[in-house]
């Protein structure tokens, strides 16, 4: 088995969990398969860095002293808001030499500043997707997934998604059982699909200002198996369907249909993760009606059928 060097770039203002989360995943895999990973941290000049939370990290070496790694990982944090021409130049020169280029959270900003994401699909923390797209129009920003793979480049969303991505890379490098064991030790899921949304429908959508629309939002969440057509929801809000659809979108930033789709998907996911109910029963409880309708929704949104999704979260649970 070839040894893969993972080099994690450190800088002042880095988010500590962006560093330690993936590092713990790769270190856990190394404990199971000695010699599988060589994990290094480095900063410009080899100087200690202060994280955004005030923690001081002491790197293994200076970036200029490290050979080109297999995996070059760039974390995010408040420090990415400040220009760093020297680090940008180092990434521009050495990023293309890595076999795998990875960013966590706003580490994607550093990669974009170095021109390494031009013509690529990428993601970052949802709060910075708009500014990244605006400042780097050559990058195809997808604000929804928790991580995105485009060739040898992988970018992930906020903080804990770096763990999800690292687990996916370990599974790819070694095997699923190794990644599952690491996930169990870290008490995290193996593994959230990369194209799972960064946040729930309730968080993705704004809370409506008017009480009738807020009540409709609550009703949808509590009754995913009900008739949630625009006509039925408009009747609950005492509005015409046309007025309701316009008002709902204006106040939540999301059409009623899209909101319903997200709520039903989340409800089905929770049942698959937390219960042993069968797919047919879950499809009815979540408002899909049939297993096939739920399967299409899962494949479209998550890239995995319900049975496969359940296996990822509950490997010992019956697919049913």
From TrEMBL:
Domain of life: Bacteria
Assigned keywords, A-Z: Transcription, Transcription regulation
Gene Ontology MF terms: DNA-binding transcription factor activity; sequence-specific DNA binding
Chain ranges of the HTH araC/xylS-type domain: 214-312
Keyword Transcription regulation: yes
PROSITE patterns in the cross-refs: HTH_ARAC_FAMILY_2 (PS01124)
Pfam family, one: HTH_18
PANTHER family cross-referenced by the UniProt entry: ARAC-FAMILY TRANSCRIPTIONAL REGULATOR, HTH-TYPE TRANSCRIPTIONAL REGULATOR RV1931C
Protein name (database record): AraC family transcriptional regulator
Annotated organism of origin: Streptomyces actuosus
């Amino acid at each position: 088995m070839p040894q893969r060097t993972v080099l994690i770039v450190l800088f002042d203002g880095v988010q500590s969990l962006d560093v330690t989360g993936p590092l713990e995943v790769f270190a856990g895999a190394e404990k199971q398969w000695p010699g599988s990973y060589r994990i290094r941290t480095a900063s410009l000049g080899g100087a200690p860095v202060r994280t955004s939370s005030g923690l001081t990290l002491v790197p293994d070496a200076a970036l200029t002293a490290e050979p080109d790694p297999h995996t070059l990982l760039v974390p995010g944090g408040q420090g990415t808001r400040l220009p760093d021409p020297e680090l940008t130049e180092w990434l521009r020169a050495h990023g293309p030499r890595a076999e795998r280029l990875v960013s966590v959270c706003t580490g994607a900003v550093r990669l974009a500043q170095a021109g390494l994401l031009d013509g690529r699909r990428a993601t970052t923390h949802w709060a910075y997707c708009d500014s990244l797209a605006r400042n780097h129009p050559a990058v195809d920003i997808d604000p929804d997934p928790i991580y995105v793979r485009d060739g040898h480049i992988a970018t992930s969303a906020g903080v804990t998604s770096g763990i999800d991505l690292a687990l996916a890379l370990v599974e790819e490098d070694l095997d699923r059982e190794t990644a599952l064991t690491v996930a169990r030790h870290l008490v995290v899921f193996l593994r959230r699909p990369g194209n799972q949304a960064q946040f729930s429908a309730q968080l993705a959508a704004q809370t409506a200002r008017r009480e009738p629309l807020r009540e409709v939002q609550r009703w949808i969440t509590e009754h995913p198996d009900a008739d949630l057509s625009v006509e039925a929801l408009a009747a609950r809000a005492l509005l015409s369907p046309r007025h309701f659809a316009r008002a709902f979108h204006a106040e939540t930033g999301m059409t009623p249909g899209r909101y319903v789709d997200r709520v039903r998907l989340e409800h089905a996911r929770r049942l698959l993760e937390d219960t042993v109910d069968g797919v047919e029963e879950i499809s009815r409880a979540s408002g899909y009606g049939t297993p096939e309708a739920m399967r299409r929704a899962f494949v479209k949104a998550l890239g995995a059928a319900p049975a496969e999704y359940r296996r990822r979260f509950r490997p010992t649970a019956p697919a049913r």
